[in-house]
Amino acid sequence: MSFAQLQSSRRAKETKSFVSTTNTQEKNVDISTDSEPQTSHIVPRSRSADRSQGPTSHSISLLGMYQNIPDTLEVRQSEETGRGLYAKTQYNVGSVLLSVRPQVSVLSGSHLEHYCSFCASAAPPHGLKRCTKCRKVWYCNASCQNADWAMHKLECNALQRWEVDAPSPELALPSDAVRCIGRVLWGIQKFGLESIWTREFNGMQSHRSSLPPSAFESHTYLAHSVVRYLGISSPTELAPFGLSSAGDLVDLISRFTTNTFTLTSPSLSPIGVCVSPTMALVNHSCDPNVVMVFPHASDAPTTTEPLMHLVALREILPGEQVYVSYVDISVSREARQKELKDVYNFTCRCSACSNQGKLDPRASVYCPKSCGGLCPLPTEENESPRCGKCNSVITSPDAILDALHVGSEGLEKAMSLQFKDPSKSRQLTSNLIPIMTSAALTPSTHPLLALTRLHMELLLLALPDNLTQEYLDEVIRTAAKYNAGLSNILPVGHPVRGVALAELGKLLAVDEPSPHDLTDTPQPHFPPSGIQRLKLALQTLVRAREELYIGYGKGNGGGQVGKEVREVIVRLEGELGAWSQGIKNVIEDARAAGQISK
Ligand SMILES: C[S@@+](CC[C@H](N)C(=O)[O-])C[C@H]1O[C@@H](n2cnc3c(N)ncnc32)[C@H](O)[C@@H]1O
């Protein structure tokens, strides 16, 4: 594969997400349980299956809502988690439990020119077509534009008005949260207050009554922007949207922020936000049994995209509750718990959070005696933890704590610089990674894993036109470390693993600028060169294909990423076949010339 082919499969400003439901726009938002879902007929349920992983639940009447839920799933309610989705049948690994098109989705500002605002497909080679009125949103073609017109005609005017009033060109576009809430409100106006569309939205969980002051402030700020965006000049104008006061708008915003999903590209880059009341029924676990993905499977018609799929990561038995992760599960238990409390207003009691005695690969260092075992990170409660294998005590806990501190601060700084000043950001990641590794942190430990991922992204963003062997090898080594870190914390088939393996395989398949070993003998260094490298690329891509088939749903053929991987595999098999044939020909020629014995 040429370097240009690799680059064309990547997009500027792409960073990977860990497939969470978090709306990254409004992090400091809290939630509560004040609005009882519409559940008038609560029926006690017989004992759930052994693996239900959850508290006792009850069937609930859906009052005509959520008609896109198949008969193999049901909505139940429990005291601890509220409403949730439960399996009524057995699902095997890689089964798609549910596929829905979100009620509303918008792209973030930096992606408007690169993805279609209706179907969220990436721009084709001939580019997208821009709305000639607002000049802000782009579409694949006239059919996507027509399909979006009922909503966009309202949005189009609001976007133009906003731009005219904007104090500076940088503020000429409202945030994606404002644009998404705008679409929700126009949807409520369009479908009517008693429509299923509106009732499903209003049925989503709100935490208005227990908003902390900081969240209340951010909601109020967002409410002001929404009012401005909609061109509302008096409270009476809120009535068509089913709102009788500014407080109702804050409530709607609370509901929105608790239940919003990140819209991602097929390769998991966050590209916008979306709302699906059906998908929002799924509760959280840090050890999830499903993932939500947008595979963009090639046979799906554009009119149904962006299609969200809920895919089984493990076997799910009848009666088991379905759990997705709302947060990045590569970070420590404390960081996950904090985000879940701050943003979603609950304390997670999943198996990963309650397993406190067990060594967490996200927070571990290698044994000081190098016995092959691991030690937990030192903490205030346990300043000198021991190796789980040989029981040796960590010798320099302060150095580890210092490295963690420097790494966490540095990661924050590097992330804030990654688009503004990528070379400075890369300098930071290059300096920090050796500090982390010399403190014996494992590749799965936070913040080393996050720094490695960021470093890889930055190296890929800055791939030079005259790619050197050294540069390419450094990206490959970083991608391999990232994969090693992921493999300890994510289950086989998790889409993040599949995508990371695909990335590594594709990098290994890039034509080497100056290969140093063309023989077919094992090489001690990594990455190998020549034919050994191509063989490793093929093995990695075959593994990626297997994992993508799980994480994106077996029926989806690994989604768009799986399709790209299959194409590279075919090309590599051809190259390897040609190489073997070439060797055979050389041997035969040499035999014919009597240079080697027959
Ligand atoms: C996206 S909603 C999920 C559906 C929600 N249970 C409902 O009744 O509509 C997110 C909210 O569900 C609740 N929730 C989700 N997972 C939970 C868990 N593992 N434990 C306790 N509450 C949970 C929290 O209140 C959270 O803010």
TrEMBL record:
InterPro entries found in the cross-reference section: H3K4_H4K5_MeTrfase, SET_dom, SET_dom_sf, Znf_MYND
The keyword Glycoprotein appears for this protein: no
Stretches assigned to the MYND-type domain: 116-156
Coiled coil location: none
Residue stretches of biased makeup (Polar residues): 17-41
Stretch list, region Disordered: 1-58
GO molecular function: zinc ion binding
Annotated keywords: Metal-binding, Zinc, Zinc-finger
Domain named SET: residues: 71-327
Source domain of life: Eukaryota
GO cellular component term of the entry, any: nucleus
Keyword Zinc-finger: yes
Name of a matching Pfam family: SET
PANTHER family: EG:BACR7C10.4 PROTEIN, HISTONE-LYSINE N-METHYLTRANSFERASE SMYD
Descriptive protein name: SET domain-containing protein
